[in-house]
Amino acid sequence: MQVLVYGAGQLAQMMYLDGAALGINVMAVDVNNNTVVHPVSKSPLDCTLEQAIELADALTVEFEHVPETLLEQAQASGKLYPGIEAILVGADRVREKQLLSGLDIPNCPYQIVDDLAQLDECVARLGERLIIKASRDGYDGYGQWRLKAASDLPALKTQLANLDLQAVPLVVEKMLNFDREVSLIGARSKSGEVVVYPLAENLHHEGQLHVSVAPATNSTEALTEQACDIFTKLVNGMDYVGVLAVELFQCGDELLVNELAPRVHNSGHWSQAGSPTSQFENNLRAVLDLPLGLAVNTGGEASVSAMINIIGCDDHKLALLGIGGTHLHWYGKTVRPKRKMGHINVTASDYAALGEKLSALAGYLSLEHFPQLQEEAARLAASN
């Protein structure tokens, strides 16, 4: 069986590695030049994009910002999972908000803005503390601005003056005092089978995910049920096939959707070591309509997990592998500031043991690049 992935980054690479164990061949498309490449070596393969589409049993994506012409060609094959509409929802915050509102799914109060003069109305309606997001091409904190006081509005308008808001409107959201961010990742197959992973708790720094812990601490049955209800509404409402990530804000006992990602997701990387079936394998299973694998551990050494992103550096020490239950995943990229270079997965029997392992891990890392690690280690060590 063969799967063609649009995008040739680390997510395609990890799908390839999991697929190989099942005898599934994964190819990737470099969407910058429409070249079919090997997902690990990035070497061009001896076939055209049209031939690769013909050979593949299923097509999928590793990120949502694929040129629409390529998505339309993929959709025409009848093999693209998820479908083009679901992918475009992930690429456009206006479409995303329309979907959430149409399915009556709670999300942050917002207003769509295509003229800077409308920002005054946003302040009057949503309050003076706002998050302003470009509706397309924003990620990892890029394409976002914050308004903390109405007196700063004139300066913000000046900063945004050169944007073409008719082409790319803004989504303006009320800045919430949420307790934490969590995410739910699950998979739905072509035949409608669904599995969901435990809620993960996510810690960010400067707009980027730095640490995920799963299952999230202090997760009640009611909270998990609420997240699963949201996920089920989404996948059924979109007739979705593949892995879907739902990022959520927890405000007291209520969950509000922050963002959707129609693909495997950074906050699910912990599943490589902390789950019987990784998100990457389940994505392949889902798009090929194979039986989905278990997503939840029943106990043992890997009962709790953490994922630590390696961002903008390559100066970690490989001796960290001596910490029990620790796995390194390296992407083979050239170092750049804020670039995700790899990640580390750590598993343990409980949160206290996980905290101890993260504290030990800190000794092998340059902590200026891991600002959340020591604080999270201390929190987990005290949480049992």
Supply database-style keywords.
384 residues; alpha+beta; Rossmann fold; Dna Ligase, domain 1; D-amino Acid Aminotransferase, Chain A, domain 1; 3 domains; nine-stranded antiparallel β-sheet; 17 strands; globular
Q: Can you tell me about this structure?
A:
This protein is α+β, with helices and mostly antiparallel strands and 384 residues long. It folds into three domains: 2-80, Rossmann fold (3-Layer(aba) Sandwich), CATH 3.40.50; 109-174, Dna Ligase, domain 1 (2-Layer Sandwich), CATH 3.30.1490; 180-381, ATP-grasp fold, B domain (D-amino Acid Aminotransferase, Chain A, domain 1, 2-Layer Sandwich), CATH 3.30.470. It is 30% helix and 26% strand. The chain contains twelve helices and 17 strands. It has helices at residues 10-21, 49-55, 68-76, 84-91, 93-102, 118-126, 153-160, 221-238, 271-274, 279-287, 351-361, 373-381; strands at 2-6, 25-30, 35-37, 58-61, 110-113, 130-134, 144-147, 170-174, 180-188, 194-196, 200-205, 208-214, 242-251, 254-261, 304-311, 326-330, 340-348. Strands 9, 10, 11, 12, 13, 14, 15, 16 and 17 form a nine-stranded antiparallel sheet that branches. The protein has a four-stranded mixed sheet with strand order 3-2-1-4, with helices on both faces. A four-stranded antiparallel sheet has the order 5-8-6-7, with helices on one face. A hairpin with a 5-residue loop joins strand 9 (180-188) and strand 10 (194-196). Helix 4 packs across helix 5. The longest helix has 18 residues, at 221-238. The chain is globular, with a radius of gyration of 21 Å. The mean pLDDT is 94.
